């Protein structure tokens, strides 16, 4: 698993693209929002947590189809399927690699972009914590979607259609945690739910992804 | 004789074809009686006026929207475990019907909401849940149509249906948490005596029965169509190989 | 140790292509599969390797000893030759033997990114994977595509000396003569009848 993780990270760094692209997309979405809704602080401040979460989610979506597609095309996936590493473990590893290259940078960059949206000072800690807890779920759910669509020629759009509804609970609890934090309310419940979704998804979804990959390799 | 014998496509077709007209006939009759009774011969509600009568359509379709997904869930499980083709095709056949029911429930909900809440759309937990359910239906159907190989499509959509069911439940909990309810809380399921006049109760039960049977009839018809399509494919493939 | 296949029926896209295939390969032996394009060599090899389920029949293969290789050999162009090999060795929990670079004539290419290699050099790298994973039973699908005569010889030598002579087993689908001392099996007699039983759409007929 470590070997696969290191290889995926190395590929992500060397291939350029993937890494920076998600971050750049995140930045652009956040910059576009004030152009759409106006520069008024009283408008931006309350919507900042939600916008940041939606933008982070969309940035994650951007690189999902690469999780398995490249390995599928060059035959690595078939070779991995016949190796001692079970496909379930491969899905977890690849989701972790995806998170390290997209979710983690987004989590780190989000507070800086919060400034652009006049987010309340109290909310920064909540934003970082909620993204750190929630974005791994986005990666593992996305890996499941990628496993379903890996055999398709133009699976990218379909992948978004399949994955976005699955993202609803994560988004709801993630944004709610930040919103409550900004308003000085108790955010324990959404944080617990967010952690629950992430751990639950990591415990169960790899089996679904592994099954989907096996079907697609047939 | 085991119930699984009916999972054979030919046996299934032979058994269901004669009963489809009956199911459809009873369904339409029940819907007619239920709706005419409900819409024309019930008193207006005290607080809501005549607008409340759209619930005679809204409630049965909403019920069927959920039941259709539940049926797809069970059918997907049966396909994954026992690999009966009819089961996979029944799930495929139910999806567009369920999606249509969801859409009708959403639209009637909006129409009911307009005079009641003064707005066409409220991000209210139940309506929102149905909107999410509708997205799940769209994704499910899109995956079916995107994959060429029939068995691969059946496998992958079944996995999606199982995972989707968990996330649909989770979403329902999430949106309930996220917004405060505006809906009539569990008008029909909880305790009918306190809320609902019997004069509303009977026609709505008949209408629900009608919509349920309509769903059954449509699923049977569409499943038979899917079986015929697969059969045509299979025969064509066999002919090609013999040539 | 031996590979024993009995009454195997394999299907492609839900349609049986080969029926009742039976053979035994003892340790130290290779088996070369012959047959026209589309007869099902790839399907058979993928089934043997466990990538797709068999329709019927039995495959007796030593557990956790098989490996599969096809023309898509999973070489990552952004990684160097050495990194590519080390990755596969790690996945299988092995070390990369230093001799592997000589056996596949990759010594001068060790630090080169695989993306800068020629098609033949890439193939050699792909095949050298078989030397680091330490598996005893190899299922090889057209291993010599885009190799020149010299490289074919290198690969055949590797297969004979480093694999078969060490008690390994190989089942190879190929159109050219590798120069191995191995029995050949023509798949033509096993071609599935048009109305063969066991297809996925059988229930609909």
Automatic annotation (TrEMBL), chain A:
Compartmental location: Cell inner membrane
A Pfam short name: CcmB
Record-given protein name: Heme exporter protein B
Transmembrane regions: 12-35, 47-64, 96-117, 123-150, 157-178, 190-213
Family that this chain belongs to: Belongs to the CcmB/CycW/HelB family.
Purpose of the protein: Required for the export of heme to the periplasm for the biogenesis of c-type cytochromes.
Keyword line: Cell inner membrane, Cell membrane, Cytochrome c-type biogenesis, Membrane, Transmembrane, Transmembrane helix, Transport
Species of origin: Marivivens donghaensis
Its membrane topology: Multi-pass membrane protein
From TrEMBL, chain B:
Entry's transmembrane regions: 20-41, 61-81, 93-115, 127-147, 159-179, 199-221
Subcellular location field: Cell inner membrane; Membrane
Keyword Transmembrane helix listed: yes
Topology versus the membrane: Multi-pass membrane protein
Matching InterPro entries: Cyt_c_assembly, Cyt_c_biogenesis_CcmC, Cyt_c_biogenesis_CcsA/CcmC
Keywords assigned: Cell inner membrane, Cell membrane, Cytochrome c-type biogenesis, Membrane, Transmembrane, Transmembrane helix, Transport
Boundaries of every Cytochrome c assembly protein domain copy: 5-183
PANTHER family referenced in this protein's UniProt entry, alphabetically: CYTOCHROME B_B6 PROTEIN-RELATED, HEME EXPORTER PROTEIN C
Job of this protein: Required for the export of heme to the periplasm for the biogenesis of c-type cytochromes.
Entry similarity comment: Belongs to the CcmC/CycZ/HelC family.
Protein name: Heme exporter protein C
Gene label: ccsA
TrEMBL record, chain C:
Alphabetical list of PROSITE patterns matching this protein: ABC_TRANSPORTER_2 (PS50893)
GO terms of molecular function: ATP binding
Pfam families registered for this protein in UniProt: ABC_tran
Domain spans labelled ABC transporter: 3-203
Keywords carried by this UniProt record: ATP-binding, Cytochrome c-type biogenesis, Membrane, Nucleotide-binding, Translocase, Transport
InterPro entries: AAA+_ATPase (IPR003593), ABC_transporter-like_ATP-bd (IPR003439), ABC_transptr_haem_export_CcmA (IPR005895), P-loop_NTPase (IPR027417)
Superkingdom field: Bacteria
The name this protein goes by in its record: Heme ABC exporter ATP-binding protein CcmA
Organism per entry: Marivivens donghaensis
């Amino acid at each position: 698993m470590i070997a696969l993780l290191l290889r995926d990270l190395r590929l992500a760094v060397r291939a350029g693209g993937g890494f920076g692209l998600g971050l750049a997309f995140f930045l652009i979405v956040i910059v576009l929002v004030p152009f759409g809704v106006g520069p008024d602080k009283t408008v931006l401040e309350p919507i900042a947590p939600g916008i940041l979460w939606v933008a982070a989610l969309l940035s994650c979506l951007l690189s999902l189809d690469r999780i398995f597609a490249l390995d599928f095309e060059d035959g690595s996936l078939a070779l991995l399927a016949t190796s001692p590493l079970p496909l379930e473990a491969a899905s977890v590893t690849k989701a972790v690699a995806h998170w390290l290259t997209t979710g983690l940078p987004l989590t780190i960059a989000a507070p800086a972009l919060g400034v652009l949206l006049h987010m309340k000072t109290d909310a920064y800690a909540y934003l970082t914590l909620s993204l750190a807890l929630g974005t791994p779920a986005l990666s593992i759910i996305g890996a499941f979607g990628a496993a379903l669509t890996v055999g398709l020629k133009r699976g990218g759009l379909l992948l978004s259609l399949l994955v976005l509804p699955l993202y609803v609970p994560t988004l709801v609890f993630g944004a709610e945690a930040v919103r409550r934090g900004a308003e000085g309310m108790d955010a324990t419940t959404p944080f617990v739910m967010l952690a629950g979704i992430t751990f639950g998804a990591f415990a169960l979804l790899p089996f679904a992804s592994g099954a989907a990959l096996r079907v697609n390799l047939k | 004789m085991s119930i699984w014998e009916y999972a054979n496509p030919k046996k299934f077709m032979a058994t269901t074809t004669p009963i489809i007209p009956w199911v459809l006939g009873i369904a339409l009759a029940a819907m007619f009686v239920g709706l005419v009774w409900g819409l024309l011969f019930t008193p207006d509600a005290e607080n809501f006026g005549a607008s409340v009568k759209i619930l005679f359509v809204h409630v049965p379709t909403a019920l069927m929207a959920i039941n259709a997904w539940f049926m797809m869930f069970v059918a997907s499980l049966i396909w994954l475990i026992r690999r009966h083709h009819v089961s996979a095709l029944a799930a495929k056949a139910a999806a567009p019907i369920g999606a249509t029911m969801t859409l009708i429930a959403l639209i009637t909900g909006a129409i009911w909401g307009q005079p009641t809440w003064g707005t066409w759309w409220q991000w209210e937990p139940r309506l929102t849940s149905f909107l999410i359910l509708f997205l799940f239906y769209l994704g499910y159907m899109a995956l079916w149509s995107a994959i060429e190989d029939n068995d691969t499509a059946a496998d992958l959509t079944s996995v999606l249906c199982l995972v989707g069911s968990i996330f649909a439940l989770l979403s329902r909990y999430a949106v309930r948490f996220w917004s405060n309810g505006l809906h009539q809380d569990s008008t029909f399921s909880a305790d009918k005596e306190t809320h609902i006049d019997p004069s509303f109760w009977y026609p709505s039960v008949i209408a629900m029965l009608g919509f349920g049977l309509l769903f059954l009839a449509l699923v049977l018809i569409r499943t038979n169509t899917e079986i015929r399509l697969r059969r045509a494919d299979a025969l064509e493939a066999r002919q090609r190989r013999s040539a | 140790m031996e590979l024993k296949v009995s009454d195997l029926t394999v299907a492609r896209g839900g349609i049986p292509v080969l029926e009742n295939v039976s053979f035994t390969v003892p340790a130290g032996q290779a088996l070369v599969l012959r047959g026209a394009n589309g007869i099902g060599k790839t399907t058979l090899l993928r089934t043997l390797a466990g990538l797709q389920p068999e329709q019927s029949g039995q495959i007796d293969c030593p557990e956790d000893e098989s490996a599969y290789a096809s023309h898509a050999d999973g070489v990552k162009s952004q990684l160097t030759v050495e990194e590519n090999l080390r990755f596969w060795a790690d996945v299988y929990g092995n070390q990369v033997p230093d001799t592997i670079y000589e056996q596949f004539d990759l010594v001068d290419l060790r630090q080169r990114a695989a993306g800068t290699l020629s098609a033949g050099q890439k193939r050699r790298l792909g095949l050298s994977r078989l030397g680091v994973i330490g598996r005893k039973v190899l299922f090889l699908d057209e291993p010599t595509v885009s190799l020149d005569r010299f490289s074919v010889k290198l690969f055949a030598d590797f297969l004979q000396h480093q694999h078969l002579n060490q008690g390994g087993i190989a089942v190879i689908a190929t159109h050219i003569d590798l120069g191995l001392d191995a029995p050949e099996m023509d798949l033509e007699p096993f071609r599935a009848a048009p109305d063969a039983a066991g297809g996925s759409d059988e229930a609909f007929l």
